[in-house]
Design goal:
mainly alpha; two-stranded antiparallel ribbon; 8 helices
Length: 254
């Protein structure tokens, strides 16, 4: 019960199927997920379909988008030799960013990343990629030996350190990577839902409510701006951590 009205938080994340394809029920988040994915693919494909020496229009925007990831994530973390990962990390960044931004789009107002499937799918993808890179670059045995037995440590410490390092790299990394994104987007969605539901209640209340709605509405506006910041920051964090894990797997000496 909040300010005289009751919100069932579970209802914010439960969706009835809009239609079915075979036996699979397609819900509103599914539609958002497919729409955002297709729009991103369409935009970058169209932007680079007929590239010009002097970019303009969509190509210019797309190049700036790619340059941001390359200059802020790829080069600082992976270095010039890691530019091969620019496409993958660009796709991850903008996929997460636009799914997050859905939380503040009027009429949509739901971040698909607030459902566990997407954050943990991305975490597993990141886990598969950086482990595959480590095994490819170092070999299966040396890769896991480097994880479990980091050099320069007294042998007696390995009794404690080895299980901790193995557990941290293999289990904790993907869990924390997915949980961080999930928790932040869930919290933001719940907070905005509570604030704007309160605003609606005030507006449809008595005379004092019609005047008092200004405060929660102003707070909601500020929190919406903050949600945009969080959406971008969480997209940046999951992408740069993936880059850090890839760099560590490819170049353990660094």
């Amino acid at each position: 019960m909040i300010l005289g009205f009751q919100i069932d938080v579970n209802e914010l994340f439960e969706f009835k199927p809009l239609f079915k394809i075979g036996g699979l029920g397609i819900t509103f988040p599914h539609v958002l997920l497919f729409a955002v994915t297709l729009l991103i693919i369409w935009f970058f494909t169209a932007a680079f379909a007929r590239p010009k020496l002097v970019p303009e229009g969509a190509q210019n925007v797309a190049e700036m988008a790619v340059d941001f990831v390359r200059e802020q994530i790829v080069l600082p973390v992976l270095g010039p030799s890691g530019t091969q990962w620019t496409g993958f990390l660009t796709a991850m960044f903008y996929f997460v960013l636009f799914l997050n931004i859905m939380s503040i789009i009027p009429g949509l107002q739901f971040p698909v990343t607030a459902l566990g499937g997407i954050p943990f799918m991305l975490a597993v993808l990141s886990w598969v990629v950086f482990n595959a890179v480590g095994i490819k670059e170092q070999g299966f045995g040396p890769y896991f030996k480097g994880i479990m037995f980091p050099p320069g440590v007294p042998k007696v410490i390995y009794v404690i350190l080895t299980p901790i390092e193995l557990f941290s790299t293999i289990i904790v990394r993907p869990i924390t990577l997915g949980l961080r994104l999930l928790a932040n987007m869930m919290a933001g969605h719940i907070l905005l839902a509570v604030i704007f539901t309160g605003t609606w209640i005030f507006i449809h209340g008595n005379i004092f409510g019609k005047i008092g709605f200004v405060l929660p509405f102003a707070l909601g506006t500020v929190l919406t701006a903050f949600e945009i910041f969080v959406a971008g920051m969480q997209a940046f964090i999951i992408t740069i951590l993936t880059a850090v894990y890839i760099a560590g797997a490819a170049h353990p000496e660094h």
